[in-house]
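Posting for a labmate who doesn't have an account.
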Amino acid sequence: MLRKGKPDEVIKRDFSLRTYARARESWSCNSKHSAAHRSPRAFAEFERSMIRTRVRAGLKRAKDQIKRDGHFVTRGGEVRKRFGRPDADPTKLRKAQAELAKGHGIIKVAKAVGLGVGTVHKLKREMAA
């Protein structure tokens, strides 16, 4: 394949690409710091895999306990019946419904009641349906 341009420019471009490729090879393979960088990286990967294993084991234990007993108790003494974010306070939801029925806007209702804008928006959609 022929390249367009002056011969001098083509030679300079090819030379600079070859020089860059050689420099990259020396950085990755022949660097005197490569062994020093590999060791902490390997340790970090091992540590991360150990943490993931412990977290997954804890979640599995909690899920099994929910299936068996219907709930599990956290370290803080909280009794949970399911995973995920807890539901909004029912009294706040009732107040928000009343305010929405009066015709107030979503953002004003959310600030007044203490709920998130997304929660109030979802509530308004459910009321309309």
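Reply:
Got it, the structure tokens are right above this. The longest strand covers residues 72-73.
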